[in-house]
Amino acid sequence: MISDDLHAQVVAWIADDPDEGDRAELAALLHEAVSPDDGETTVQAAADLASRFAARLEFGTAGLRGAIGAGPNRMNRAVVRATTAALAGWLRYVDPTASETGVVIGCDARHRSDEFAAEAAAVLAGAGIRVHLLPRRQPTPLLAYAVTHLRAAAGIMITASHNPPSDNGYKLYLGDGAQIVPPADLEIEAAIRSLGPLSRVPVAAPDDPLIVRHGDKIAAAYLDAICSISPAPKGAAWLRYIYTPLHGVAGDLAMRAFEQAGFPPPDLVEAQAQPDPDFRTVAFPNPEEPGSLDLALAQARRSGADLVLANDPDGDRLAVAVPDDTAPGGWRTLTGDQVGSLLGGYLLGPAGATSPAGATSHQQPLVVTTIVSATMLASIASAAGASYAETLTGFKWIARAGDLRPEVRFTFGYEEALGYSIGTTVRDKDGIGAALAVLSLAARARSGGNSLLEEYDALEVAHGVHLTEQLTVPTTAPVHVMSRLRVAVPAELAGQPIISMADLTGGTADLPSADVLRYWLRGARVVIRPSGTEPKIKAYLEVVEPVIAGRLTEARRAARARMDPLREAVRALLDG
Prior knowledge:
The chain is α/β, with parallel strands linked by helices. Helix content is 38%, strand content 20%. The chain has helices spanning 4-16, 20-33, 40-52, 77-94, 98-101, 113-126, 140-149, 184-193, 217-229, 251-261, 294-303, 336-348, 376-384, 395-398, 431-447, 452-463, 478-487, 552-575; strands at residues 63-67, 103-107, 131-133, 154-158, 167-174, 211-213, 241-244, 267-268, 307-311, 318-323, 331-333, 364-370, 387-391, 408-415, 419-422, 465-474, 492-493, 496-497, 500-503, 517-521, 524-530, 536-545.
Protein backbone atom coordinates (compact mmCIF):
# COMPACT_ATOMS: atom_id res chain seq x y z
CA MET A 1 0.00 0.00 0.00
CA ILE A 2 1.05 3.62 -0.49
CA SER A 3 0.38 6.79 1.48
CA ASP A 4 -2.51 9.09 0.66
CA ASP A 5 -0.02 11.82 -0.22
CA LEU A 6 1.84 9.64 -2.74
CA HIS A 7 -1.49 8.45 -4.16
CA ALA A 8 -2.53 12.07 -4.74
CA GLN A 9 0.79 12.91 -6.38
CA VAL A 10 0.51 10.00 -8.79
CA VAL A 11 -3.08 10.84 -9.74
CA ALA A 12 -2.18 14.50 -10.31
CA TRP A 13 0.82 13.59 -12.45
CA ILE A 14 -1.24 11.20 -14.58
CA ALA A 15 -3.79 13.94 -15.19
CA ASP A 16 -1.07 16.34 -16.40
CA ASP A 17 1.18 13.91 -18.31
CA PRO A 18 1.06 14.53 -22.10
CA ASP A 19 2.10 10.98 -23.03
CA GLU A 20 -0.53 8.26 -23.31
CA GLY A 21 1.97 5.46 -22.77
CA ASP A 22 3.45 7.05 -19.66
CA ARG A 23 -0.04 7.67 -18.23
CA ALA A 24 -0.89 4.02 -18.75
CA GLU A 25 2.40 2.92 -17.16
CA LEU A 26 1.71 4.92 -14.01
CA ALA A 27 -1.93 3.87 -13.87
CA ALA A 28 -0.93 0.20 -13.99
CA LEU A 29 1.64 0.71 -11.22
CA LEU A 30 -0.88 2.57 -9.11
CA HIS A 31 -3.42 -0.21 -9.54
CA GLU A 32 -0.86 -2.78 -8.37
CA ALA A 33 0.31 -0.61 -5.48
CA VAL A 34 -3.19 -0.19 -4.01
CA SER A 35 -4.17 -3.81 -4.51
CA PRO A 36 -5.67 -5.34 -1.36
CA ASP A 37 -3.36 -8.30 -1.93
CA ASP A 38 -0.23 -7.21 -0.06
CA GLY A 39 1.94 -9.62 -2.03
CA GLU A 40 5.36 -9.20 -3.58
CA THR A 41 3.97 -7.52 -6.72
CA THR A 42 2.12 -4.94 -4.65
CA VAL A 43 5.19 -4.21 -2.55
CA GLN A 44 7.37 -3.84 -5.64
CA ALA A 45 4.86 -1.51 -7.32
CA ALA A 46 4.64 0.65 -4.21
CA ALA A 47 8.43 0.84 -3.99
CA ASP A 48 8.66 1.69 -7.68
CA LEU A 49 6.14 4.51 -7.33
CA ALA A 50 7.92 5.82 -4.25
CA SER A 51 11.18 5.94 -6.22
CA ARG A 52 9.57 7.68 -9.21
CA PHE A 53 8.06 10.37 -6.96
CA ALA A 54 10.83 10.65 -4.36
CA ALA A 55 12.13 13.76 -6.10
CA ARG A 56 12.12 15.54 -9.41
CA LEU A 57 14.90 14.62 -11.83
CA GLU A 58 17.31 17.40 -11.03
CA PHE A 59 18.56 19.77 -13.69
CA GLY A 60 22.24 19.66 -12.79
CA THR A 61 25.77 19.76 -14.15
CA ALA A 62 24.91 19.68 -17.85
CA GLY A 63 21.17 19.10 -17.81
CA LEU A 64 19.17 15.97 -17.00
CA ARG A 65 20.08 12.31 -16.95
CA GLY A 66 18.23 9.33 -15.54
CA ALA A 67 16.30 6.14 -16.15
CA ILE A 68 13.56 6.23 -18.77
CA GLY A 69 10.07 5.88 -17.33
CA ALA A 70 6.98 7.75 -16.19
CA GLY A 71 7.04 10.10 -13.21
CA PRO A 72 8.99 13.18 -12.10
CA ASN A 73 12.15 11.27 -11.15
CA ARG A 74 12.51 9.65 -14.59
CA MET A 75 13.24 10.71 -18.18
CA ASN A 76 9.97 11.11 -20.11
CA ARG A 77 8.03 13.54 -22.29
CA ALA A 78 6.51 15.36 -19.32
CA VAL A 79 9.92 16.07 -17.82
CA VAL A 80 11.27 17.14 -21.22
CA ARG A 81 8.28 19.42 -21.75
CA ALA A 82 8.68 21.09 -18.35
CA THR A 83 12.43 21.51 -18.78
CA THR A 84 12.12 22.96 -22.26
CA ALA A 85 9.31 25.34 -21.28
CA ALA A 86 11.50 26.62 -18.44
CA LEU A 87 14.45 26.92 -20.81
CA ALA A 88 12.33 28.91 -23.29
CA GLY A 89 11.31 31.39 -20.62
CA TRP A 90 14.88 31.71 -19.35
CA LEU A 91 16.27 32.23 -22.87
CA ARG A 92 13.80 34.98 -23.66
CA TYR A 93 14.83 36.71 -20.43
CA VAL A 94 18.62 36.50 -20.85
CA ASP A 95 18.84 36.80 -24.65
CA PRO A 96 16.37 39.05 -26.50
CA THR A 97 17.58 37.61 -29.83
CA ALA A 98 16.96 33.96 -28.87
CA SER A 99 13.60 33.75 -30.65
CA GLU A 100 15.31 34.54 -33.95
CA THR A 101 18.72 32.85 -33.52
CA GLY A 102 17.02 29.79 -32.15
CA VAL A 103 18.02 26.56 -30.44
CA VAL A 104 19.73 23.58 -32.08
CA ILE A 105 18.38 20.15 -31.15
CA GLY A 106 20.10 16.82 -31.73
CA CYS A 107 19.57 13.29 -30.48
CA ASP A 108 21.37 9.96 -30.34
CA ALA A 109 19.86 6.50 -30.89
CA ARG A 110 18.83 5.66 -27.34
CA HIS A 111 15.32 4.58 -26.47
CA ARG A 112 12.85 7.48 -26.98
CA SER A 113 15.57 9.93 -28.08
CA ASP A 114 13.65 10.87 -31.26
CA GLU A 115 10.51 11.37 -29.22
CA PHE A 116 12.20 13.60 -26.64
CA ALA A 117 13.87 15.69 -29.37
CA ALA A 118 10.51 16.19 -31.10
CA GLU A 119 8.92 17.21 -27.79
CA ALA A 120 11.62 19.80 -27.11
CA ALA A 121 11.24 21.19 -30.65
CA ALA A 122 7.46 21.47 -30.29
CA VAL A 123 7.72 23.31 -26.97
CA LEU A 124 10.33 25.79 -28.22
CA ALA A 125 8.39 26.52 -31.38
CA GLY A 126 5.24 26.86 -29.29
CA ALA A 127 7.07 29.53 -27.31
CA GLY A 128 7.94 31.37 -30.53
CA ILE A 129 11.57 30.28 -30.63
CA ARG A 130 13.13 29.05 -33.86
CA VAL A 131 14.36 25.43 -33.79
CA HIS A 132 17.25 23.99 -35.79
CA LEU A 133 16.58 20.26 -35.80
CA LEU A 134 19.57 18.12 -36.78
CA PRO A 135 19.09 14.81 -38.61
CA ARG A 136 18.32 11.97 -36.21
CA ARG A 137 20.98 9.75 -34.66
CA GLN A 138 23.92 12.17 -34.65
CA PRO A 139 26.85 12.40 -32.20
CA THR A 140 27.10 15.03 -29.48
CA PRO A 141 30.14 16.85 -30.97
CA LEU A 142 28.07 17.70 -34.06
CA LEU A 143 25.45 19.36 -31.85
CA ALA A 144 28.09 21.37 -30.01
CA TYR A 145 29.63 22.42 -33.35
CA ALA A 146 26.24 23.35 -34.80
CA VAL A 147 25.49 25.80 -31.98
CA THR A 148 28.39 28.08 -32.91
CA HIS A 149 28.20 27.31 -36.64
CA LEU A 150 24.57 28.51 -36.74
CA ARG A 151 25.17 31.24 -34.11
CA ALA A 152 22.26 29.83 -32.13
CA ALA A 153 21.26 30.91 -28.64
CA ALA A 154 21.53 27.39 -27.20
CA GLY A 155 21.68 23.70 -28.00
CA ILE A 156 19.89 20.64 -26.64
CA MET A 157 21.34 17.15 -27.07
CA ILE A 158 19.15 14.19 -26.15
CA THR A 159 21.67 11.62 -24.94
CA ALA A 160 22.80 9.70 -21.89
CA SER A 161 26.34 9.41 -23.24
CA HIS A 162 27.77 6.11 -21.96
CA ASN A 163 25.13 5.39 -19.30
CA PRO A 164 23.30 2.02 -19.19
CA PRO A 165 20.70 1.25 -21.89
CA SER A 166 17.86 2.07 -19.50
CA ASP A 167 18.88 5.74 -19.30
CA ASN A 168 18.47 8.85 -21.37
CA GLY A 169 19.31 12.50 -20.85
CA TYR A 170 18.98 16.14 -21.86
CA LYS A 171 22.28 17.98 -22.22
CA LEU A 172 22.22 21.76 -22.61
CA TYR A 173 24.71 24.04 -24.36
CA LEU A 174 24.83 27.82 -24.26
CA GLY A 175 25.35 30.07 -27.25
CA ASP A 176 29.14 29.84 -26.98
CA GLY A 177 28.93 26.14 -27.85
CA ALA A 178 29.99 24.91 -24.40
CA GLN A 179 27.91 23.15 -21.75
CA ILE A 180 26.03 25.28 -19.25
CA VAL A 181 27.74 26.59 -16.12
CA PRO A 182 26.37 28.19 -12.96
CA PRO A 183 24.28 30.21 -12.44
CA ALA A 184 22.44 29.20 -15.63
CA ASP A 185 21.73 25.69 -14.37
CA LEU A 186 20.36 26.95 -11.05
CA GLU A 187 18.20 29.57 -12.76
CA ILE A 188 16.68 27.02 -15.14
CA GLU A 189 16.11 24.57 -12.30
CA ALA A 190 14.26 27.32 -10.40
CA ALA A 191 12.16 28.03 -13.49
CA ILE A 192 11.22 24.34 -13.73
CA ARG A 193 10.05 24.29 -10.11
CA SER A 194 7.88 27.37 -10.62
CA LEU A 195 6.29 26.10 -13.84
CA GLY A 196 2.52 25.61 -13.75
CA PRO A 197 0.50 22.74 -15.24
CA LEU A 198 1.92 21.23 -18.42
CA SER A 199 -1.48 21.52 -20.09
CA ARG A 200 -0.86 25.27 -20.24
CA VAL A 201 2.45 24.94 -22.11
CA PRO A 202 1.95 25.90 -25.79
CA VAL A 203 3.07 23.11 -28.11
CA ALA A 204 3.58 23.59 -31.85
CA ALA A 205 2.73 21.07 -34.55
CA PRO A 206 5.58 19.05 -36.11
CA ASP A 207 5.26 21.02 -39.36
CA ASP A 208 5.40 24.43 -37.68
CA PRO A 209 7.48 26.82 -39.84
CA LEU A 210 9.64 27.69 -36.83
CA ILE A 211 11.01 24.13 -36.87
CA VAL A 212 13.80 24.02 -39.45
CA ARG A 213 14.93 20.52 -40.36
CA HIS A 214 18.57 20.55 -41.45
CA GLY A 215 20.17 18.12 -43.84
CA ASP A 216 23.82 17.19 -44.23
CA LYS A 217 25.35 20.66 -44.69
CA ILE A 218 26.22 21.12 -41.01
CA ALA A 219 27.87 17.70 -40.84
CA ALA A 220 29.84 18.49 -44.01
CA ALA A 221 31.07 21.77 -42.50
CA TYR A 222 32.04 19.97 -39.28
CA LEU A 223 34.01 17.37 -41.24
CA ASP A 224 35.78 20.07 -43.26
CA ALA A 225 36.84 21.75 -40.03
CA ILE A 226 38.15 18.72 -38.12
CA CYS A 227 39.83 17.19 -41.18
CA SER A 228 41.71 20.42 -41.89
CA ILE A 229 43.18 20.32 -38.37
CA SER A 230 44.35 16.69 -38.52
CA PRO A 231 45.00 15.67 -42.13
CA ALA A 232 46.75 12.38 -42.79
CA PRO A 233 50.54 12.82 -42.92
CA LYS A 234 52.82 11.06 -45.36
CA GLY A 235 52.96 7.35 -44.72
CA ALA A 236 49.43 7.20 -43.31
CA ALA A 237 48.39 4.72 -46.00
CA TRP A 238 50.33 1.98 -44.21
CA LEU A 239 48.52 2.48 -40.91
CA ARG A 240 46.33 -0.44 -39.83
CA TYR A 241 43.69 0.23 -37.20
CA ILE A 242 40.46 -1.12 -35.74
CA TYR A 243 37.48 1.15 -35.11
CA THR A 244 34.27 0.65 -33.14
CA PRO A 245 31.50 3.12 -32.25
CA LEU A 246 30.28 0.70 -29.53
CA HIS A 247 26.74 0.55 -30.94
CA GLY A 248 26.55 4.34 -30.82
CA VAL A 249 25.95 7.12 -33.32
CA ALA A 250 29.50 8.21 -34.16
CA GLY A 251 30.20 5.52 -36.76
CA ASP A 252 28.93 7.17 -39.95
CA LEU A 253 30.60 10.54 -39.33
CA ALA A 254 33.80 8.91 -38.11
CA MET A 255 34.09 6.76 -41.25
CA ARG A 256 33.53 9.84 -43.40
CA ALA A 257 36.16 11.73 -41.40
CA PHE A 258 38.78 9.01 -41.79
CA GLU A 259 38.32 9.00 -45.57
CA GLN A 260 38.14 12.78 -45.99
CA ALA A 261 41.26 13.34 -43.89
CA GLY A 262 43.17 10.91 -46.09
CA PHE A 263 43.50 7.90 -43.80
CA PRO A 264 42.95 4.34 -44.99
CA PRO A 265 39.62 2.81 -43.99
CA PRO A 266 39.67 1.05 -40.61
CA ASP A 267 38.92 -2.57 -39.93
CA LEU A 268 35.44 -1.94 -38.57
CA VAL A 269 33.96 -4.01 -35.74
CA GLU A 270 30.84 -4.94 -37.70
CA ALA A 271 28.94 -6.34 -34.71
CA GLN A 272 29.06 -2.89 -33.08
CA ALA A 273 28.89 -0.70 -36.19
CA GLN A 274 25.17 0.13 -36.19
CA PRO A 275 23.35 2.08 -33.45
CA ASP A 276 21.70 -0.22 -30.93
CA PRO A 277 20.01 1.28 -27.86
CA ASP A 278 20.36 -2.04 -26.03
CA PHE A 279 24.14 -2.28 -26.61
CA ARG A 280 23.85 -6.04 -26.99
CA THR A 281 27.54 -6.97 -27.23
CA VAL A 282 28.81 -5.07 -24.17
CA ALA A 283 27.93 -5.35 -20.50
CA PHE A 284 28.25 -1.58 -20.10
CA PRO A 285 28.59 0.88 -23.03
CA ASN A 286 31.50 2.83 -21.59
CA PRO A 287 34.94 2.42 -23.22
CA GLU A 288 36.52 2.97 -19.80
CA GLU A 289 34.89 -0.20 -18.46
CA PRO A 290 36.83 -3.49 -18.56
CA GLY A 291 35.52 -5.74 -21.30
CA SER A 292 33.95 -3.02 -23.44
CA LEU A 293 36.74 -3.30 -26.03
CA ASP A 294 36.96 -7.09 -26.07
CA LEU A 295 35.56 -7.50 -29.60
CA ALA A 296 37.81 -4.78 -30.99
CA LEU A 297 40.91 -6.18 -29.28
CA ALA A 298 40.18 -9.71 -30.52
CA GLN A 299 39.87 -8.33 -34.04
CA ALA A 300 43.13 -6.41 -33.62
CA ARG A 301 44.99 -9.55 -32.57
CA ARG A 302 43.74 -11.39 -35.64
CA SER A 303 44.63 -8.61 -38.06
CA GLY A 304 47.93 -7.46 -36.54
CA ALA A 305 46.68 -3.87 -36.28
CA ASP A 306 48.75 -0.91 -35.08
CA LEU A 307 46.04 0.44 -32.79
CA VAL A 308 42.39 0.31 -31.76
CA LEU A 309 40.08 3.34 -31.64
CA ALA A 310 36.69 3.33 -29.92
CA ASN A 311 34.12 6.07 -29.47
CA ASP A 312 31.54 5.97 -26.73
CA PRO A 313 27.84 5.81 -27.71
CA ASP A 314 27.37 9.57 -28.29
CA GLY A 315 30.80 10.03 -29.85
CA ASP A 316 32.31 12.58 -27.49
CA ARG A 317 34.91 10.28 -25.91
CA LEU A 318 37.72 8.23 -27.39
CA ALA A 319 39.50 5.11 -26.15
CA VAL A 320 42.85 4.04 -27.61
CA ALA A 321 44.52 0.65 -27.33
CA VAL A 322 47.94 -0.36 -28.62
CA PRO A 323 49.99 -3.57 -28.96
CA ASP A 324 52.10 -4.33 -25.88
CA ASP A 325 53.84 -7.68 -25.47
CA THR A 326 54.05 -7.16 -21.70
CA ALA A 327 50.29 -6.71 -21.24
CA PRO A 328 47.73 -9.51 -20.79
CA GLY A 329 46.53 -10.52 -24.23
CA GLY A 330 49.26 -8.52 -25.90
CA TRP A 331 47.30 -5.25 -25.95
CA ARG A 332 47.13 -2.28 -23.61
CA THR A 333 44.37 0.30 -23.35
CA LEU A 334 45.98 3.68 -22.79
CA THR A 335 44.70 5.85 -19.97
CA GLY A 336 43.12 9.20 -20.66
CA ASP A 337 46.19 10.86 -19.15
CA GLN A 338 48.50 8.96 -21.48
CA VAL A 339 46.49 9.87 -24.58
CA GLY A 340 46.17 13.45 -23.35
CA SER A 341 49.92 13.76 -22.87
CA LEU A 342 50.61 12.21 -26.27
CA LEU A 343 48.23 14.58 -28.03
CA GLY A 344 49.49 17.57 -26.08
CA GLY A 345 53.08 16.82 -27.04
CA TYR A 346 52.10 16.25 -30.66
CA LEU A 347 49.97 19.38 -31.03
CA LEU A 348 52.57 21.60 -29.40
CA GLY A 349 55.39 20.16 -31.50
CA PRO A 350 56.42 21.72 -34.81
CA ALA A 351 54.91 18.90 -36.88
CA GLY A 352 51.51 19.10 -35.27
CA ALA A 353 51.13 22.71 -34.22
CA THR A 354 47.60 23.87 -34.85
CA SER A 355 46.34 27.43 -35.19
CA PRO A 356 42.56 27.57 -34.73
CA ALA A 357 40.58 29.91 -36.93
CA GLY A 358 40.72 33.43 -35.60
CA ALA A 359 44.08 33.02 -33.85
CA THR A 360 46.70 35.69 -34.40
CA SER A 361 50.44 35.28 -34.61
CA HIS A 362 51.12 36.88 -31.23
CA GLN A 363 48.82 34.50 -29.35
CA GLN A 364 50.47 31.83 -27.23
CA PRO A 365 49.17 28.24 -27.54
CA LEU A 366 47.06 27.24 -24.53
CA VAL A 367 46.65 23.66 -23.35
CA VAL A 368 44.19 22.82 -20.60
CA THR A 369 43.39 19.91 -18.33
CA THR A 370 41.69 19.42 -14.98
CA ILE A 371 42.88 19.37 -11.39
CA VAL A 372 42.40 15.58 -11.26
CA SER A 373 44.39 14.81 -14.43
CA ALA A 374 48.12 14.07 -14.63
CA THR A 375 50.46 17.05 -14.46
CA MET A 376 52.63 15.89 -17.38
CA LEU A 377 50.83 18.31 -19.72
CA ALA A 378 52.11 21.20 -17.61
CA SER A 379 55.69 20.02 -18.11
CA ILE A 380 55.14 19.53 -21.84
CA ALA A 381 53.66 23.01 -22.16
CA SER A 382 56.54 24.59 -20.24
CA ALA A 383 59.11 22.90 -22.47
CA ALA A 384 57.23 24.06 -25.59
CA GLY A 385 56.83 27.65 -24.38
CA ALA A 386 53.04 27.24 -24.30
CA SER A 387 50.52 28.45 -21.75
CA TYR A 388 48.92 25.92 -19.42
CA ALA A 389 45.76 26.01 -17.29
CA GLU A 390 43.94 23.70 -14.89
CA THR A 391 40.19 23.73 -14.32
CA LEU A 392 37.60 21.86 -12.32
CA THR A 393 36.46 18.56 -13.84
CA GLY A 394 34.22 18.90 -16.88
CA PHE A 395 34.56 20.32 -20.36
CA LYS A 396 32.25 23.19 -19.51
CA TRP A 397 35.29 24.58 -17.65
CA ILE A 398 38.01 23.31 -20.00
CA ALA A 399 36.43 24.87 -23.10
CA ARG A 400 36.19 28.29 -21.44
CA ALA A 401 39.66 28.36 -19.90
CA GLY A 402 41.01 30.86 -22.43
CA ASP A 403 37.89 32.96 -23.00
CA LEU A 404 39.08 35.92 -20.97
CA ARG A 405 42.70 35.69 -22.09
CA PRO A 406 43.17 37.36 -25.49
CA GLU A 407 46.90 36.67 -25.38
CA VAL A 408 46.35 32.89 -25.81
CA ARG A 409 44.68 30.57 -28.33
CA PHE A 410 43.03 27.39 -27.16
CA THR A 411 45.01 24.57 -28.76
CA PHE A 412 44.13 21.47 -26.79
CA GLY A 413 42.17 20.37 -23.76
CA TYR A 414 41.58 17.00 -22.14
CA GLU A 415 40.24 15.27 -19.06
CA GLU A 416 41.35 11.90 -17.76
CA ALA A 417 37.92 10.37 -18.45
CA LEU A 418 38.82 9.95 -22.17
CA GLY A 419 37.66 13.40 -23.29
CA TYR A 420 39.74 15.50 -25.73
CA SER A 421 39.23 18.72 -27.67
CA ILE A 422 41.46 19.75 -30.59
CA GLY A 423 41.38 23.49 -31.17
CA THR A 424 38.17 25.51 -31.06
CA THR A 425 36.12 23.77 -33.74
CA VAL A 426 34.08 22.01 -31.05
CA ARG A 427 33.91 23.65 -27.62
CA ASP A 428 33.38 20.31 -25.94
CA LYS A 429 35.05 16.94 -26.00
CA ASP A 430 35.05 15.45 -29.49
CA GLY A 431 35.82 11.78 -29.93
CA ILE A 432 35.86 11.97 -33.73
CA GLY A 433 38.20 14.95 -33.98
CA ALA A 434 40.42 13.33 -31.35
CA ALA A 435 40.49 10.08 -33.34
CA LEU A 436 41.85 11.96 -36.36
CA ALA A 437 44.56 13.55 -34.20
CA VAL A 438 45.55 10.16 -32.76
CA LEU A 439 45.71 8.67 -36.25
CA SER A 440 47.87 11.57 -37.42
CA LEU A 441 50.24 11.09 -34.49
CA ALA A 442 50.32 7.29 -34.95
CA ALA A 443 51.04 7.60 -38.68
CA ARG A 444 53.87 10.06 -38.09
CA ALA A 445 55.33 7.83 -35.38
CA ARG A 446 55.07 4.74 -37.60
CA SER A 447 56.86 6.55 -40.44
CA GLY A 448 59.70 7.23 -38.01
CA GLY A 449 59.82 3.61 -36.91
CA ASN A 450 58.07 4.20 -33.57
CA SER A 451 54.89 3.00 -31.95
CA LEU A 452 52.61 5.12 -29.76
CA LEU A 453 54.07 3.35 -26.72
CA GLU A 454 57.56 4.40 -27.78
CA GLU A 455 56.31 7.95 -28.27
CA TYR A 456 54.99 7.88 -24.71
CA ASP A 457 58.25 6.41 -23.43
CA ALA A 458 60.05 9.42 -24.91
CA LEU A 459 57.67 11.77 -23.10
CA GLU A 460 58.35 10.09 -19.76
CA VAL A 461 62.12 10.16 -20.32
CA ALA A 462 61.85 13.89 -21.00
CA HIS A 463 59.30 14.84 -18.33
CA GLY A 464 59.37 12.06 -15.76
CA VAL A 465 57.09 9.12 -15.01
CA HIS A 466 53.60 10.37 -14.17
CA LEU A 467 51.76 7.39 -12.68
CA THR A 468 48.07 8.03 -12.01
CA GLU A 469 45.31 5.99 -10.40
CA GLN A 470 41.72 6.58 -9.40
CA LEU A 471 40.23 5.20 -6.19
CA THR A 472 36.47 5.06 -5.63
CA VAL A 473 35.02 4.36 -2.20
CA PRO A 474 31.25 3.80 -1.85
CA THR A 475 29.59 5.77 0.95
CA THR A 476 26.05 6.74 1.83
CA ALA A 477 27.32 9.93 3.47
CA PRO A 478 29.83 11.66 1.16
CA VAL A 479 29.15 15.03 2.78
CA HIS A 480 30.07 13.57 6.19
CA VAL A 481 33.31 12.11 4.82
CA MET A 482 34.34 15.45 3.30
CA SER A 483 33.45 17.26 6.54
CA ARG A 484 35.50 14.79 8.57
CA LEU A 485 38.53 15.34 6.34
CA ARG A 486 38.21 19.09 6.76
CA VAL A 487 38.06 18.83 10.55
CA ALA A 488 40.83 16.24 10.94
CA VAL A 489 43.42 17.33 8.39
CA PRO A 490 45.93 14.49 7.86
CA ALA A 491 49.60 15.31 8.44
CA GLU A 492 50.94 12.47 6.32
CA LEU A 493 50.00 9.74 3.90
CA ALA A 494 51.88 6.46 3.56
CA GLY A 495 54.60 7.83 5.82
CA GLN A 496 55.18 10.87 3.63
CA PRO A 497 54.44 14.33 5.05
CA ILE A 498 51.75 16.43 3.38
CA ILE A 499 53.59 19.54 2.23
CA SER A 500 50.46 21.58 1.53
CA MET A 501 46.73 21.22 1.05
CA ALA A 502 43.94 23.26 -0.50
CA ASP A 503 40.20 23.30 0.12
CA LEU A 504 38.32 24.62 -2.90
CA THR A 505 35.22 25.50 -0.90
CA GLY A 506 34.74 29.16 -1.65
CA GLY A 507 36.99 28.95 -4.70
CA THR A 508 40.41 30.42 -5.43
CA ALA A 509 41.77 33.13 -7.71
CA ASP A 510 41.76 30.61 -10.58
CA LEU A 511 39.02 28.12 -9.70
CA PRO A 512 35.36 28.48 -8.71
CA SER A 513 34.03 27.02 -5.50
CA ALA A 514 33.88 23.23 -5.39
CA ASP A 515 33.65 20.44 -2.83
CA VAL A 516 37.25 19.36 -3.46
CA LEU A 517 40.30 18.76 -1.25
CA ARG A 518 43.83 18.69 -2.69
CA TYR A 519 46.97 17.38 -0.98
CA TRP A 520 50.56 17.65 -2.15
CA LEU A 521 53.36 15.37 -1.01
CA ARG A 522 56.92 15.33 -2.27
CA GLY A 523 56.58 14.05 -5.82
CA ALA A 524 52.92 13.09 -5.36
CA ARG A 525 49.43 14.57 -5.32
CA VAL A 526 45.99 13.47 -4.10
CA VAL A 527 42.66 15.06 -5.03
CA ILE A 528 39.47 14.02 -3.23
CA ARG A 529 35.89 14.90 -4.18
CA PRO A 530 32.42 13.35 -3.88
CA SER A 531 30.83 11.94 -7.03
CA GLY A 532 28.32 14.31 -8.57
CA THR A 533 25.90 11.51 -9.50
CA GLU A 534 26.50 8.53 -7.22
CA PRO A 535 26.96 7.84 -3.46
CA LYS A 536 30.73 7.63 -3.74
CA ILE A 537 33.91 9.48 -2.86
CA LYS A 538 36.56 9.66 -5.57
CA ALA A 539 40.28 10.10 -5.05
CA TYR A 540 42.70 10.88 -7.88
CA LEU A 541 46.31 9.93 -7.17
CA GLU A 542 49.48 10.88 -9.00
CA VAL A 543 53.10 9.94 -8.34
CA VAL A 544 55.85 11.67 -10.30
CA GLU A 545 59.27 10.05 -10.55
CA PRO A 546 62.16 11.65 -12.47
CA VAL A 547 63.96 9.50 -15.04
CA ILE A 548 67.69 9.57 -14.31
CA ALA A 549 70.12 8.92 -17.17
CA GLY A 550 67.36 7.46 -19.31
CA ARG A 551 66.63 4.61 -16.87
CA LEU A 552 62.90 4.54 -17.54
CA THR A 553 62.22 1.03 -16.23
CA GLU A 554 63.80 1.84 -12.87
CA ALA A 555 61.80 5.05 -12.60
CA ARG A 556 58.56 3.21 -13.33
CA ARG A 557 59.34 0.61 -10.67
CA ALA A 558 60.05 3.38 -8.17
CA ALA A 559 56.79 5.15 -9.02
CA ARG A 560 54.83 1.91 -8.56
CA ALA A 561 56.56 1.24 -5.25
CA ARG A 562 55.36 4.64 -4.02
CA MET A 563 51.87 4.43 -5.52
CA ASP A 564 50.77 1.17 -3.89
CA PRO A 565 51.17 2.29 -0.24
CA LEU A 566 49.77 5.75 -1.13
CA ARG A 567 46.62 4.17 -2.54
CA GLU A 568 46.08 2.06 0.57
CA ALA A 569 46.72 5.06 2.82
CA VAL A 570 44.12 7.12 0.96
CA ARG A 571 41.65 4.23 1.11
CA ALA A 572 42.11 4.04 4.88
CA LEU A 573 41.71 7.82 5.12
CA LEU A 574 38.38 7.72 3.28
CA ASP A 575 37.12 4.68 5.18
CA GLY A 576 37.79 6.58 8.41
